[in-house]
Amino acid sequence: MDREGVEGASVRRVAAKLGVNPASLYNHVPSRAAMVEDVRALVSAPIDSRPLVEQPWEEGLFAWATSYRRAFANHPKTIPLLMTTKVSAPVLLAEYEDFVVAAEAVGWRINDVLPLLTAFESFILGSVLDMSGPTVVFDPSGQEDRFPRFAAAFVALEDEDPLDPVATRAFELGLRMLIASARPQDQPTEER
Q1: Residue 22 counted as domain residue
Q2: 66 domain-assigned
Q3: Positive or negative: CA dihedral 82, 85, 86, 88
Q4: Is 39 within a domain?
Q5: Rounded Cα gap, residues 138 and 100, in angstroms
Q6: pLDDT, tens digit, for every residue of 124-167?
Q7: Residue 58 placed within a domain
């Protein structure tokens, strides 16, 4: 599923890769949805949500989001697959529980917590997908006269890490921006 993503996630294809009869696979997983949930549990297991409940809100968010991105970084093709089923894996629900506890502790109303969580997950998983493409998706070559400032910004990437000139810096910049606005607007900014 890491190589083929959604296309490789049928019970028949997984059974073929394992060299077993599809009926035999059903002895271990009752359905495709259960198989997808097992993949979700495996990929999500390294996410560390403890910082959310053990550290101040902003620091906990940064540590949690970074571990979340790291967990999915080697499995970007699973992201579209995991979007095909509802989340029920206890390992991930436990992490979500920590997120809700931490969010409520800084004043988020319960009806705003899942949109907040979704905003963070959308950003984190989008960053993982960004990492899975070319290291630089921009190329103004041959158009420098028409777009001089953009071309200058592009050339400035030559001074950055050639293996990761944009993705990690973009993730950290965007995450800090998201965290800077991660307190409820109608609540004081006191710490737990």
Answers
A1: no
A2: yes
A3: negative
A4: no
A5: 37
A6: 999 999 888 888 999 999 999 999 999 999 999 999 998 888 99
A7: yes
